[in-house]
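On clarity, I found the account of how folds are encoded harder to follow than it need be. What matters is that the chain and its backbone geometry are given together, residue for residue. For the editor and my fellow referees, an illustration may be useful. For illustration, here is how one protein appears when written out as sequence plus C-alpha cells:

___
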Amino acid sequence: MRSEDFGAFATEMAHMSELYQKPMSEAMIALYFDDLAAYEIEAVISGLHAHRVDPDRGRFFPKPADIVEKIGGDIAARALLAWDHAVAAAIDVGPYESVRFRDPVITRVIAAMGGWTSFYDWPDKEMPFKRKEFCDRYAVYARTNRHGDVGHLVGLFERQNALNGHLVKPPVLVGAEPTKALPASRVEVDGLPERVE
C-alpha cells in the first residue's frame, strides 16, 4: 500500500472495529497499515473480507498475520489464473505479434522469464517447472508491487522490423475486454528506444 491508501485502509479497519466491537486507536490502525504495507490496498481489503466470511477464524478480530494468510491464498489463486490466461494468449496470439497484458504483473513475469517469444517456445517437458516459476514470480511481484511499468512484450515481427528500421505494428492488448491492437507508434529494440505510448 502507498501513503495515499491510508484513508481507505482506516475506513475499512473502522468497519472491522464496529463489526467485531473492538475499539482501535489511530496507533493500532497505523501498526496494521505498516504490517500490511507490502500488499496492494485491493488485496488487503479482499483479505479482510475473506477473513470476515471465514466460518472458523472469522469469529475473531484478525491479526495482521490472519490478513496476510488470506492475501496469500488469494495471490496463489490469482497466479494460477494468470498462468492460464498467459498460456491462452500464447496460443491465440502466437509469437509473431507483440502483446501487452492488462494485468501488468503478467507482463512483468513473462519479461523476467525471457520474454514473449521464449514463453511461447518452452518445450512441453519444461512446462510444469515453468508454471511453478511463473506462479512464484507472480506472487512476489503482486505482493510487493514490483512489476513496474514494463510496457509490452516484443514479438518476432516487431523485433525484426525494428532492427531493419521499418514501422512497427502496435502490440495486441490482452485482457478482460476483447483482444485489440494498441495505437501505433515507433519502437526500437535491443538497446534502442522503447515504445512511446
About this structure: Residues 75-181 form one domain. Residues 177-197 have pLDDT under 50 and may be disordered. The longest helix spans residues 64-93. Helices lie at 6-20, 26-35, 41-52, 64-93, 104-112, 116-120, 127-144, 156-163.
